[in-house]
Amino acid sequence: MPDQSLGFLLHDAARLIRRRFEARACDLGLTTAQWRLLVYLKRKGPLPQARLAELLEIEPISVSRLVDRMEEGAWVERMPDSNDRRIKLVHPSERARAVFEEAREIADEIYDQALAGLSKTEVEHAMSTLRHIIRNLSDESPTHSSEANHE
Q1: Which of 17, 24, 43, 109 has the fewest CB atoms lying closer than 10 Å?
Q2: Backbone φ, ψ for residue 33 (5° rounding)
Q3: Which residues are 89's β-sheet partners?
Q4: Angle at 74 between CA 108 and CA 37, to 5 degrees
């Protein structure tokens, strides 16, 4: 049954979380793509668009368009890198910093709702399992590297 496969279940869970976030965060004017970009800027500090493309796993042109829209909406600012003026770093704006905690609360409430009825042990196990899947499929995975060597 296709709707019970790992791929379908992961996709459906992510889609439902994304929909809930966008429904709740629409008053803030944030999409999930914009939220993810802001989270990376919060965690890692100002970043060049090329690095954001890697982190978000989308094409550089898509990040450029996303940053353009976010700059127009006063969510981010592009500023020259003090070490290399050819590079523009994306910085969160004052607006982004002002609403970040409110958006974080929305995300946390959605995660709490998604995990309702699960014990702490079950949640930890699910998170551990997902991390393991991600490691198995990441480019740095020993399994992935050995497959690449056999091609």
Answers
A1: 43
A2: -60, -45
A3: 48, 79
A4: 45
Residue 47 CA, distance from chain mean position: 14
DSSP 8-state class, residue 31: -
Q: Which pLDDT tens digits describe the chain residue by residue (151 residues)? A: 556 899 999 999 999 999 999 999 988 999 999 999 999 999 999 999 999 999 999 999 999 999 999 999 999 999 999 999 889 999 999 999 999 999 999 999 999 999 999 999 999 999 999 999 989 998 764 554 444 444 3
In this prediction the pTM is 0.78
Sequence-separated (6 or more) residues with CB below 8 Å from residue 20: 110, 113
Distance between CA atoms of 108 and 8, rounded to whole angstroms? 23
b/e per residue 109-130 (b: at least 16 CB within 10 A): ebeeeeeeeeeeeeeeeeeeee
Amino acid of residue 104 = R
For residues 102 and 106, what is the distance between their CA atoms, to the nearest angstrom?
A: 6
Structure tokens at 5: 């496969």
- For residue 6, which of 122, 142, 134 has the smallest C-alpha distance? 134
Q: Which domains, and CATH codes, for the chain?
A: 9-143 (1.10.10.10)
